[in-house]
Structure formats: structure tokens, C-alpha cells
């Protein structure tokens, strides 16, 4: 038995599975790391267990929000009836699952790192715990941005009416849109976590520098997110660019290739720029007088590290628009 | 979920060109501008040694952003650019917070607002770069490290506009979408106000600050 109705509901189930299946990886890893560091911290000073456990739970709750986004998308996919039995809806559902699931990996891992650093800092410098917790909350919340981009693409795929798009090569555009944002969100999520972790430790050591550290952290994190934004741009291009109907395999593969290109291209620059920003933030906290120089050097270094992501963006745009 | 893709538009034809106005965005921007003007009036109406509440907020903002501008630029340029930086932050902050009031929506949810402000920042940064370094030194930077890197350097500069504006748009749009979807799922009970606090107040503040700081930093990178 093979008809459009069966295939469309099946693809919604596949999409739900992909969303929460991939989405559960990152948050679990990040939360496990947090709990591990919290246990280590407790063994140094068992009498501060109340504060540490409270902070661990708050940090884990934030790290889990990426997985909760994935859960929301999965539930929507499970309980929404396919509005039309077009095959395009099926591919859109699978693309939505991929986009949400993959993009939750990086954010989950990333936001576990500052939470762990905060647990350790509370034990080592109990007097600064307020500033440490504020910095951890800001850092972990900004870590969620890549997952939010993935969720936007997932909901656009689910709810925008694509009935006037030809099935060939439209199916590849749907899948490519999911892959572009989903894959490219992995790197920035992890990289942002590294930056936020360094910022939390820095604030704990030199609490008087917290304003400059938080500012440098925010700038570094948001520049490191550039590649997921390029992936998001490619997804939007794939969703809303008018393609001509064509049954050749090559035109479908171009769009799928564009998705893979900007998706994989975003992983490396995201992590690398996150590490750059992490070192810059660490030394801002230790040598506050050279904050201006550190900030400019960080930005130049990140711009160079990002050039590979820009090459991927150029190739994706060429695949979509020119060829 | 029709609200997601339904954008109120007004199309007018002028000299053979179709002009499209996103009426909701324009109206909400006017609301923001009007409240900023009101705030400015209230903050400066009776300037006193014992300030009124509005004057306190205004002084805090001016102090904080003058300090940030002076850190990034030198004193002379800081005096020149700080009014723009401070008003950009206040505008974006109110834009991002507007969505917490029922029936109103964030102007930054429409890509046109962040893109316009991003292009504005791009031109200001490059204008100040040319002015402070001279056209020759400015143009020479594009041919570093080797001359054939020029096209990639130019694309890298343009990509900054894309990233700064899509970052704000994606965050605010994402917040609005998840609030809408979760409200549908839980029949608007309990959860939505908490989500509005997180996405509207918290993420909105952070993203307004990030946009402002990046505009400032892009100027400072061009100037030095």
C-alpha cells in the first residue's frame, strides 16, 4: 500500500522523531557536564552544597530549553494533520525535524559549559556568586540563539503555504532549508558555550571587571553566531526564492547541495570563533587595561576565521541563484 | 496559525512603481517614536539637582553609553557618535519590548527595520573610516594581505550587514513564533506570560544591546 495520505502522515512521524531524537543529544551532554563539574565542586567544599545544587539545577534548566524547543516542534508535528496531501508537505515536515533537531545539539552542549563553570566558581569564590550567576544566565540564554534560528525555520517550513511551488525541485529546497540552518547551528552553539564559560570564570576571579567581561562576551558570542545567520539566510532563500519547475535530478541536487554547503560550512567557524572569543574574554578579565586592544584583535581574528564560512555562503548562493 | 504569515500591506502605485508599505510595522514604529519623544520631554522638562524619575533613567542611559563610546572611540569621536549610539539603543529596546503589550507587535519582527538600521550603521562606519584615515589608506585595507583578496574582503564587509540585521530579526521573530505556538498548545494558560518575560524583556534587552555595541565596534574598527 503506497499512497499520498500514508506517506504524508508517515513523514510527519519521521520529522517528529528527527526533531526530538537529534534534539535530545546536545542538552543531555551539556547537563551531564554541568552535573559532573557540580559534583567535583561539592567535593572541595561540601558545606556549600545548597548553593551549588541550586545553581546546577538552574543551569541545567536553561541548557534543557533547546531540547524543549525540539519537544514543542515534535509535538506539533505529531498532532498536526497534514493540510494537503501534497508530497511537498512531507518533505517540509522532514526538513522541519532536521532543522530543529540538529540545531538543538550545539546549543544544548554549549549552555552546559557556563553552568558547569558557574558551579565551580561559586565554590571557589563564594562572595561573587551574584555576579557569577547573572553572567551565567546571560551567557546561557545567548547560547540558545542558534536553536531559536532552527526553530524559526522549522515553523516556517510547517506553517507557510508552499502550494504554488513545484514539487521538483521544491522537495530539495525544503530539505536543504532544514539542513542549512540545522547543521550550521551546531558550531556556533558549542563555540558560544566556550566563550560564556571563560566569561563566568573570569567574572569569578576578577568581579570588578564584570561589566567589561560581559560586554566582550556578548560581542564575541554574537559575532561567532554569524555562520548560523548565514545558514538562516540560505534557508530563507531556499524557502522563498521562485524556482522553475524542472524534473532533472541536477536542479534538485543543486538546492540540496546549497543546504549541505552552508550547513557544514558553519560548523568550523562557529567553534573556532567561540574559542577566539573565549581567550579574549579570559584576558579581558585579567588585564582590564588592554580591553580595547583585545576587543579589536579578537574581532580581526574572528573575521579571518569566519572567511571559510563566507566561502560556503558564496557557494550556496551561487548554487541557488546563478547556476 | 494564520498570524504567522499574514502581513498587513498597503500597495500604492507612484510613477509606475509599486510601493509596498507594511502598515503594521510603520504604525508600531510611530508608537515607539512617540513614546521616545514623550520620554525625552519628561526627562528634560524640569532638570533639577534632585532629579525626577525620568531624569534618573535618562542620566543612567547617557552616562552608561557615553562611557562605552569613550572606551571604543577616542574622546572627540565619542562626543560625535554617542548621541546616535544612545538613541539607537533606546529605539531598539522599546521596539523589542513593545510586543509584551497585547495587540501591539515588535517593529523589529519585520526584517525591514533591522536591515535598514544595519545598512545605516554600515554607511556610518565606512564614512567615519574614510574621514579619519583618508580615502587612500581606507582603500588600501581591502587589498591586504594580497591584492586578489579584495572581492572577498568586500563580501566580508557586506556579510556584516547581513549578520547584524538577521541576528536581531531572527531572535525577535523566533520569540514571537514560540510564544504564538505555545499559546496555541496550552490554550493561553500559565506559560505564555513567562515566555513573554523571557523572550520580550530578557532576550529583547540583550539583542538591543548587542546590535548597538556591534554598530559601535564596527565604527571603531574602521576608525583605527
Write a concise keyword list for the protein shown above:
heterodimer; A: about 325 residues; mainly alpha; 13 helices; about 85% helix; about 0% strand; B: about 220 residues; two-stranded antiparallel ribbon; 7 helices; 2 strands; about 5% strand; globular
Task: Give an overview of the whole structure.
The complex is a heterodimer of chains A (323) and B (224). Chain A has 323 residues and is mainly α. Chain A contains 13 helices and no strands. The longest helix of chain A is centred in the N-terminal third of the chain and has 41 residues, at 4-44. Chain A is flat, with a radius of gyration of 21 Å. The relative contact order of chain A is 0.12. The mean pLDDT of chain A is 91. Chain B is mainly alpha-helical. Chain B has 7 helices and 2 strands, in the order ββααααααα. Chain B has helices spanning 23-44, 53-72, 75-97, 112-133, 135-140, 150-185, 191-223; strands at residues 9-14, 17-22. Chain B has a two-stranded antiparallel sheet with strand order 1-2. In chain B, strand 1 and strand 2 form a beta hairpin. Chain B is globular. At the A-B interface, helix 3, helix 5, helix 6, helix 9 and helix 10 of A face helix 2, helix 6 and helix 7 of B.
Structural class of chain A: mainly alpha
Beta content of chain B: 5-15%
Rg of chain A, rounded, reads 21 Å
Structural class call of chain B reads mainly alpha
From the alpha-carbon coordinates, what is the Rg of chain B to the nearest angstrom?
20 Å
Strand content of chain A: under 5%
Low-confidence spans of chain A = none
Separation of the first and last Cα atoms of chain B? 49 Å
Strand element count of chain B: 2
What ranges of chain B have pLDDT less than 50 throughout 5 or more consecutive residues? none
Question: Main β-sheet of chain B, in a few words?
Answer: 2 strands, antiparallel
Mean pLDDT of chain A: 91
What's the overall average pLDDT of chain B, rounded?
87
Task: Determine the oligomeric state from the structure.
Answer: heterodimer
Helix content estimate of chain B: over 70%
* H and E order of chain A: HHHHHHHHHHHHH
Largest sheet, spatial ordering of strands of chain B:
1-2
Main interface: chain pair and counts: A-B, 41 and 36 residues
N-to-C order of helices and strands of chain B = EEHHHHHHH
Amino acid at each position: 500500500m503506497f499512497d499520498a495520505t500514508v506517506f504524508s502522515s508517515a513523514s510527519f512521524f519521521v520529522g517528529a522523531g528527527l526533531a526530538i531524537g537529534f534534539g535530545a543529544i546536545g542538552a543531555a551532554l551539556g547537563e551531564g557536564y554541568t552535573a559532573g563539574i557540580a559534583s567535583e565542586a561539592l567535593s572541595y567544599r561540601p558545606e556549600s552544597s545548597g548553593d551549588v545544587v541550586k545553581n546546577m539545577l538552574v543551569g541545567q534548566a536553561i541548557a534543557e530549553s533547546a531540547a524543549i524547543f525540539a519537544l514543542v516542534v515534535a509535538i506539533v508535528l505529531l498532532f498536526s494533520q497534514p493540510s494537503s496531501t501534497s508530497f511537498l508537505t512531507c518533505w517540509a515536515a522532514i526538513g522541519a525535524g532536521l532543522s530543529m533537531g540538529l540545531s538543538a545539539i550545539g546549543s544544548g552542549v554549549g549552555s552546559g559549559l557556563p553552568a558547569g563553570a558557574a558551579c565551580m566558581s561559586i565554590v571557589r569564590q563564594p562572595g561573587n556568586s551574584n555576579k557569577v550567576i547573572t553572567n551565567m544566565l546571560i551567557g546561557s540564554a545567548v547560547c540558545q540563539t542558534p536553536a531559536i534560528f532552527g526553530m524559526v525555520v522549522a515553523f516556517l517550513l510547517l506553517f507557510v503555504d508552499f502550494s504554488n511551488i513545484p514539487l521538483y525541485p521544491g522537495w530539495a529546497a525544503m530539505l536543504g532549508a532544514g539542513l542549512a540552518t540545522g547543521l550550521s547551528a551546531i558550531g556556533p552553539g558549542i563555540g558560544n558555550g566556550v566563550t560564556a564559560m571563560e566569561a563566568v570564570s573570569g567574572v569569578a576571579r576578577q568581579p570588578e571587571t564584570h561589566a567589561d567581561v560581559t560586554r566582550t562576551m556578548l560581542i564575541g558570542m554574537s559575532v561567532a553566531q554569524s555562520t548560523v545567520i548565514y545558514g538562516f539566510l540560505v534557508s530563507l532563500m531556499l524557502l522563498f526564492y521562485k524556482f522553475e519547475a524542472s524534473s532533472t535530478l541536477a536542479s534538485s541536487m543543486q538546492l540540496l547541495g546549497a543546504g549541505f554547503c552552508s550547513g557544514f560550512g558553519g560548523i568550523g567557524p562557529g567553534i573556532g570563533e567561540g574559542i577566539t572569543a573565549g581567550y579574549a574574554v579570559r584576558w579581558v578579565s585579567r588585564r582590564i587595561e588592554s580591553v580595547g586592544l583585545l576587543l579589536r584583535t579578537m574581532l580581526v581574528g574572528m573575521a579571518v576565521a569566519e572567511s571559510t564560512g563566507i566561502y560556503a555562503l558564496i557557494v550556496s548562493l551561487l548554487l541557488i541563484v546563478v547556476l | 496559525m494564520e498570524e504567522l504569515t499574514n502581513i498587513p500591506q498597503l500597495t500604492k502605485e507612484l510613477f509606475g512603481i509599486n510601493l509596498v508599505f507594511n502598515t503594521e510595522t510603520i504604525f508600531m514604529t510611530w508608537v515607539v517614536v512617540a513614546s521616545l519623544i514623550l520620554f525625552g520631554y519628561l526627562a528634560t522638562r524640569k532638570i533639577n539637582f534632585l532629579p525626577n524619575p525620568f531624569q534618573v533613567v535618562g542620566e543612567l542611559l547617557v552616562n552608561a553609553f557615553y562611557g562605552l563610546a569613550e572606551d571604543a572611540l577616542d574622546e572627540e569621536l565619542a562626543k560625535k557618535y554617542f548621541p546616535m549610539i544612545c538613541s539607537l539603543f533606546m529605539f531598539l529596546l522599546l521596539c523589542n519590548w513593545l510586543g509584551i503589550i497585547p495587540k501591539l507587535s515588535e517593529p523589529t519582527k519585520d526584517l525591514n527595520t533591522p536591515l535598514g538600521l544595519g545598512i545605516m550603521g554600515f554607511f556610518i562606519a565606512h564614512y567615519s573610516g574614510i574621514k579619519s584615515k583618508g580615502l587612500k589608506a581606507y582603500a588600501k585595507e581591502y587589498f591586504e594581505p594580497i591584492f586578489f583578496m579584495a572581492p572577498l574582503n568586500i563580501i566580508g564587509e557586506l556579510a556584516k550587514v547581513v549578520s547584524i540585521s538577521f541576528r536581531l530579526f531572527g531572535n525577535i521573530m523566533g520569540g514571537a513564533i514560540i510564544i504564538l505556538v505555545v499559546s496555541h498548545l496550552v490554550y493561553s494558560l500559565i506559560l505564555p506570560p513567562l515566555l513573554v518575560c523571557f523572550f520580550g524583556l530578557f532576550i529583547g534587552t540583550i539583542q538591543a544591546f548587542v546590535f548597538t555595541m556591534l554598530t559601535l565596534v564596527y565604527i571603531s574598527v574602521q576608525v583605527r
